């Protein structure tokens, strides 16, 4: 398969993942806040992402079981995407203002299906991308994921007043059905290693030299950002923006900037090296989170909000592309789905904790101090990565040892 063909296939798969997650992480918080849910409640709703944090528990099953005739990863991805379509069509029959619990349960199911699809997709990406293709490949991955978030976290926020809940769900279902076509026509090559790992893969993974320090590093890297931006949409609601305004601001302009940032970050990682880019992008990410304090302090002209949001999403896209590339480097081909999923689960768990606690910070300290505290957490969050890098330099671990 040509490099362009690999990137196109992965783009369609990560686009499909980004749509439900954009709906959950961008659309849902703004809608809940508009309906009068407290800041603490909006923050705690982020716990619906729990399947993304716990997916490592069933990742070995996805690595071990699959149809060799249909394609090991493909035999998981296609049914899961079709089940996502069915779930969205069922959700279209629920009225959130009448039965909020049923709607939240449906979102939880969506997150479970998308997170399981992610296991198979990540495993496919690790196995088909050569090491020199991973920088650009992860740029495309993050960009496509953010495009899905634009469509279902931004565009749908803009159209929600006209479409209504049922049509929003139906549009998402149709879009995900279309993204299933490329993988349905893909002929997955047989794995080079025929042995399929069992549950012992967990012990093998954690016994690898340096794995503990690496997992701490990736957990801390995005924690501060998640803590900060977890209250971004409630902040916009509280300063008087409507759902359509937030859709244009964060879900469209912001995520287009994130898409561009991911592509730029992926290209820079390939050209200038993993570690150099990781540390530079981390510093830019901390500055971007701190910049939201400008708006919280009272400077809220439209162009200011757009500039701040664009800057933060661009920085986040670059940092995410660098981090994901290094996570892929730390994954073994034989257990690619499990290895990458464990790392991704650590990141999601850390960011979920940060987002779930963000409401308490904003409620007690105010938005200005909240964003500044989050920026400080971003800076401190790079220290574990520095410590792990020093271990790599001393030859104590081979994890993420690509320059």
TrEMBL record:
The keyword Transport applies. It comes from the Bacteria. It is found in: Membrane. It is a multi-pass membrane protein. The chain crosses the membrane at residues 42-62, 74-94, 143-163, 214-236, 248-270, 277-297, 303-328, 340-365, 371-389. Coiled coil: none annotated. Residues 6-393 form the Major facilitator superfamily (MFS) profile domain. InterPro entries: AmpG_permease/AT-1, MFS, MFS_dom, MFS_trans_sf. Keywords: Membrane, Transmembrane, Transmembrane helix, Transport. Its main location: membrane. Pfam families: MFS_1 (PF07690). PANTHER family: MAJOR FACILITATOR SUPERFAMILY DOMAIN-CONTAINING PROTEIN 3, SOLUTE CARRIER FAMILY 33 ACETYL-COA TRANSPORTER -RELATED. This is MFS transporter. It comes from Nannocystis pusilla.
């Amino acid at each position: 398969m040509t490099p362009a063909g690999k990137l196109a296939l992965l783009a369609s798969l990560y686009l499909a993942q980004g749509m439900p997650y954009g709906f959950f992480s961008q659309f849902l918080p703004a809608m809940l806040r508009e309906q009068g849910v407290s800041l603490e409640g909006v923050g705690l709703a982020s716990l619906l992402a729990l399947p993304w944090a716990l997916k490592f528990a069933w990742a070995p099953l996805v690595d071990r079981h699959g149809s060799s005739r249909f394609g090991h990863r493909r035999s998981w991805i296609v049914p899961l995407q079709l089940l996502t379509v069915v779930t969205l069509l069922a959700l279209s029959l629920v009225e959130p203002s009448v039965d909020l619990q049923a709607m939240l349960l449906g979102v939880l199911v969506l997150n479970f299906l998308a997170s399981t699809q992610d296991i198979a997709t990540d495993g496919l990406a690790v196995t088909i991308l050569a090491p020199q293709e991973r920088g650009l490949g992860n740029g495309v991955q993050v960009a496509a994921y953010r495009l899905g978030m634009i469509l279902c976290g931004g565009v749908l926020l803009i159209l929600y007043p006209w479409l209504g809940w049922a049509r929003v769900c139906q549009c998402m279902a149709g879009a995900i059905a279309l993204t299933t076509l490329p993988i349905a026509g893909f002929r997955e090559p047989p794995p080079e290693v025929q042995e399929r790992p069992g549950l012992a893969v967990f012990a093998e993974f954690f016994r690898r030299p340096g794995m503990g320090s690496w997992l701490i590093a990736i957990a801390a890297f995005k924690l501060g950002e998640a803590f900060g931006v977890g209250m971004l949409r409630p902040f916009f609601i509280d300063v008087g923006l409507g759902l359509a305004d937030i859709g244009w601001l964060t879900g469209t302009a912001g995520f287009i900037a994130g898409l561009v940032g991911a592509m730029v970050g992926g290209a820079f990682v390939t050209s200038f090296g993993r570690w150099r880019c990781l540390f530079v992008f981390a510093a830019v990410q901390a500055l971007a989170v701190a910049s939201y304090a400008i708006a919280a302090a009272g400077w809220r002209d439209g162009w200011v909000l757009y500039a701040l949001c664009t800057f933060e999403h661009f920085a986040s896209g670059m940092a995410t592309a660098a981090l994901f590339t290094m996570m892929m480097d730390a994954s073994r081909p034989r257990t690619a789905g499990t290895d990458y999923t464990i790392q991704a689960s650590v990141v999601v768990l850390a960011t979920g904790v940060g987002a779930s606690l963000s409401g308490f910070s904003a409620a007690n300290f105010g938005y200005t101090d909240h964003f500044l505290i989050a920026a400080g957490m971003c800076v401190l969050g790079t220290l574990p990565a520095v410590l792990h890098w020093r271990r790599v330099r001393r030859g104590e671990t081979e994890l993420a040892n690509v320059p």
